[in-house]
Amino acid sequence: MGISVESRRGRIALMVAHCAGMVDLVALSVWVGALIAHYGFDPQRAGGLPTLFLVGAVVASVTLAPRIHRVNGRRVATAGFAISAVAFWLTSGITVYAQLGALHLVAGLSAGAALSVTHGTIARSANPHRLFAIAGMALGVFAVAFLAGTPQLIAAQGGPALFKAFAGVMVVGAAASLLAFPGEGMAVTAQARPGPLPRVVWFGILGIACMTLVQAMIFGFLEGVGTHRGFDRSAINGVLIVLGLVNLLPALLAALLQKRLPPRKVLLAGPVVQCALAITIMVSTAFGPYAFAAALLAAVLIFTHTFAFGLLAHLDTSGRTLTGTPAMLMVGSAIGPFLGGTLVNAFGYESLAVATAVLAVAAVICFAQLPATMTRN
Question: What is the mean pLDDT of residues 86-109?
């Protein structure tokens, strides 16, 4: 007998796998910052390495999404996180850019495959919105621990410590998947025959991709713009810790408000709020507004995406769309660090504010195409 997705063991494994697979959402600012400060790369080259990781995750997600009903989730998740752990450990021992890029790509492919089957399993649970919110709460706890300790570890031991930390996270993900990844109890759609994806689903996918592109562009250069403005390094690290604490709340709020807020209205508001925060971060010369906006930035995406996850699970009950969640999240994230670094090199940090406004308009247009009502579990 397999482990049920509704069991405590199964849920814990999915929470751990979600945290390991979504490490970029938590660590991107520290990641790019370490590559600039400790490896001497310019913003474009520094942003290019996480981009390769995220490109790998997108490719893996797109490849697996149509095949979710034919793969063994436990095996894919266990092997994916294990291979990613080895790739990151090897990364910690080299400094050649091409080799770093190749290992980032391998780590992204394997971690992306593991995350894809994780999200596909959550999507086929009895209440995808609630279970994804629970996984989001776990990600918030993980963010606090990671952002409280990793910057200090990097400061003490140098840039390679970041990749050793990533390797450790992936080892935990592999162990949890091996011991308890669920394979039964996907009650909603385990017997469903996949048909064509509803056309409206693609608007939801594109809208989330726009929001994650903004998140990656801004969050990836959170440390950089703070240093550029002359803010104290310890104060910036303090903002990252507060950001982790704030991220404990949005998934919990999304779970509590599932039956009280119409998903479409949440999705329409999300890009607007995100845009306001991003512009504040990139143009503020005072620490207070910068810190306030930075602390809330990731929370907006987490809250909005939880409602998007539940709505898309309702629109496509086969689970294929949400097996591709890493793709819709990371296609934006993959472009973000490199695009952000290119814009910063050419036009300065303020140019990211202009790019954010354009993407926010695109996201709102996409979300406006989604249905206004849905049947909730």
Answer: 95
184/161 Cα distance (integer angstroms)? 38
Under 8 Å between Cβ of 110 and 80: yes
Is the residue at 309 inside a domain? yes
Q: Specify the residue for token string 């149509």.
A: 66
Burial 213-235 (b: 16+ CB within 10 A, else e): bbbbbbbbbbbbbbbebebeeee
Q: Residue 13: which CATH number?
A: 1.20.1250.20
pLDDT of res. 190: 42
Q: Is residue 294 part of a domain?
A: yes
Give CA–CA dist 60/361, Å, rounded: 29
Task: Cite the DSSP H helix spans in 284-367.
Answer: 287-315, 320-323, 325-347, 350-367
- 376 belongs to a structural domain: no
The predicted-structure confidence for 16-74, as pLDDT tens digits, reads as follows 999 999 888 788 878 988 898 889 888 788 888 988 998 898 888 888 767 766 778 88
376 pLDDT exceeds 70? no
The pTM assigned to this predicted structure is 0.75
- Do 332 and 24 meet the contact criterion of CB atoms below 8 Å apart? no
Domain carrying residue 329: 8-190+199-367
341 lies in some domain? yes
Burial 165-186 (b: 16+ CB within 10 A, else e): bbbebbbbbbbbbbebbbbebb
Q: What is the pLDDT of residues 151-170, one digit of tens each?
A: 889 988 998 999 999 999 99
CA distance 365 to 370: 10
Residue 311 has pLDDT above 50, yes or no: yes
| 3-class DSSP string for 12-62 | HHHHHHHHHHCHHHHHHHHHHHHHHHHHCCCHHHHHHHHHHHHHHHHHHHH
Has residue 286 got a pLDDT over 90? yes
